[in-house]
Amino acid sequence: MNKSKYLIFYITTVGGFIALILFILHHGSFLEHNAVASVANESLTNWKQFTETFHHNLTHPLAILLLQIITIILVARAFAFLSKKIKQPTVIGEIAAGIFLGPSVIGTFFPQVSHFLFPVQSLGNLQFLSHVGLILFMFVVGMELDLNVLKNKAKDAVVISHASIIFPFALGITLAYFLYSSYAPAKISFVSFSLFMGISMSVTAFPVLARIVQERGLSKTRLGAIAITCAAADDITAWCLLAGVIAVVKAGSVFAALYTLGLAAVYVIMMIKIIKPFLRTIGEKYSDKESISKPIVGIFFITLLVSSYSTEIIGIHALFGAFMAGVIMPANANFRSVFIEKVEDIALVLLLPLFFVFTGLRTEIGLLNTPGLWMACAAIVAIAVLGKFAGSVAAARFVGQSWRDSLSIGALMNTRGLMELVVLNIGYDLGVLSPEVFAMLVLMALVTTFMTGPALDLVNKFLPAKPVTVAETKKELSSNILVAFSSAAKGISLMKLASLFIDKSTGDANITMLHLSPSNDLNQFNRQEYEKASIEPVALEAKRLQLPVTTLFKPSLSISSDIINLANTGGFNLLLMGIGKSVFEGTILGRLLGFTSKIINPERLYSTIAGQEKLFEKPAFEERVTAIVRSVKIPVGIFINKGIKNIETVFIPVFNLEDSFLLNYAKHLVCNPNITITILDVSTVIDKSPSLQQSINYLRQACEGTLNIDYNRRIDKEILNRQHLLLISVDSWKKAVEMQSSWLTSIPSVLVIKN
Description:
The protein is an alpha/beta fold. The relative contact order is 0.08. It is globular, with a radius of gyration of 32 Å. Helix 23 links the parallel strand 1 (about 480-485) and strand 2 (about 510-520). Helix 8 (about 125-145) runs parallel beside helix 15 (about 320-325) and helix 10 (about 190-200) runs antiparallel to helix 19 (about 415-430). About 65% of the residues lie in helices and about 10% in strands. Strands 3-2-1-4-5-10-9-6-7-8 form a 10-stranded mixed β-sheet, with helices on both faces. The protein is built from 33 helices and 10 strands.
């Protein structure tokens, strides 16, 4: 009755007002002047009016900007994925994406697409939006600098970092002497050109270096600590130098720049002596996510904007102000972690790729069209590498570092990445760098960042450190299980499951609990927080259950690759991992386009092209798990948890002779007196094999648990409803998924095992 009443009211109200609106519109049309109506009717047909309106909407500045952002993010993500596949920092892919979308590739081969996507009149909007992204990014870079680290290792860090600046700076100015006549823009003084060439050679990309240190597991090593400290000191020094260089360029001479530098000094003193103590007081009072309200966030963002505005009008660029605002943020690690997380995603994922593409739109590699230009480009790259690498290595050796650590520091300090592009764009905006020199220096930034990983690999190859791995301490273990988990709750359930497959009575059994976090989500302030949140609950539960557990936490560039590598080299007997959902599972899009995740996910697309998967094959697991199962050389257990709390009944179906290896896992389980195991001999494989029958009889006699065996019976809901855990081979699981077996709808928690 209520539904009918609501429906009648809805139809009466909405229908009545719609009728009134139509009535007024109809009679109001008679009020129009006849001339206006006739002109409107004659000038445009309905279709033409629609097409012109559509074209206007399509070419509207806002529509163009949104299309540019969509294209840039998609292409940047694709190139970032490719760079990860070749073990390079994602910044390499994002810089390459910018060059790809610019005149060097798309502009050359698809000029009409380039003109539509990036019309000249739209570039101003893109530039200003990218500058907003840079301001936020430099704010994050400033916050990620831990000045306390500098205090602890200032002596060595200052020597190495300043040597790594003065060497390439001097070489850059020397190179400018030979390039100035041929490549400097008109009306630019030699001082301005040479200073920018020097600073371009001297920059180290602190954020990229920090990511590389994390990804290679060096964060807690002496080498990692000294590299981060040197990069931090280098960053502060380089930005101060850049501020001075900008002041000189804008003022026209060193002496005229003294006024600008004087104002800059007053600005820095005010930031450190007045603003920093005020912000520290707020940071001490509001240091966690719950207490940081919108007004508090507003105070810090106003500080950022005012600081950027101040340095812009002083004449040393808004980015220096953003960097300085980040540096003076409260030193409280929790506070900085919260703020970095608030800003980093929007800056790195949405806005920063706009800067890469804007740089790419300015980079015309086609301008380097003569042997002389390419020789100049090669000289720039060679001088940049020689100055930065040699300066860092020489200084590191002088302060007592080993050859291995010195060469590694040199390779890391030679990383330029995004920071180099920031410097180059400032120089280009000021008119100091010509388009040809700008293109050469962008290529230099790409090459020096790209070579960091291979250079470190070469150092490790020829000067290997003594490996300290899990395999060293546990390679003789008879029961050594690796558990890869994504959250503490999942880790605890996997750990309890793993404990059923080890013999706790011996002293050599061990469970290694591994948690990998995407390195892009970590910085030096939130790493400790992430590690504690993921590892501590697992360690406490292991202690309570008296389980032999080792915990490992590691930032990772590629989680799948790191799991595969550790499983294959760590001396483990079994890898246990959980399973997640596909993003399309249970959605209308997933039902309409069952293959969509395969098309979108590059891993599965590659597998399809390589012939490892069929295009329309229904996947048994999510993409990441499939890749790991395919590549890991030891047995793998994939746990599908459906809310299991206790494991008292286990069901093991044996479909064929290949499934008989499951009896080895039954042997571990049945030794637990609290577990009842039911083995279903679906095709009478066990019944026809005397050796398997003997194994079953041995299990019944040797262990305390209950073992039941059922022959020649189909799996049905009745038997599954009584089970806590289903143990099944990966091949049988795949067949059941492909055939969409009816019993899958009634399964309990499942452990799928690849032998």
